[in-house]
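Worked example 2:
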Amino acid sequence: MEREMCFLTEQQPPWDGVLSDVLGQHGIPFLTRDALGAGMTSKIGIMLERVSFFVPSDKLEEARELVEDLFSGEAPTEE
């Protein structure tokens, strides 16, 4: 049975790597999708890239809490 994947958040580098590490440390599976892709990023620069994160629906609430805790003092998220 395939689990439904739900949108969690969108992050820019280097925050996408930080969030990937945190989700992995907590055992939350996730998928990412780059907004621009490798070709465009190589031309205009990685700092303009945005990475969307998706998690299984049964892990969404836990993942949201991690995002909130991680970025509560920062302004890198756009939910």
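Strands lie at 5-11, 31-34, 51-56. The longest strand covers residues 5-11.
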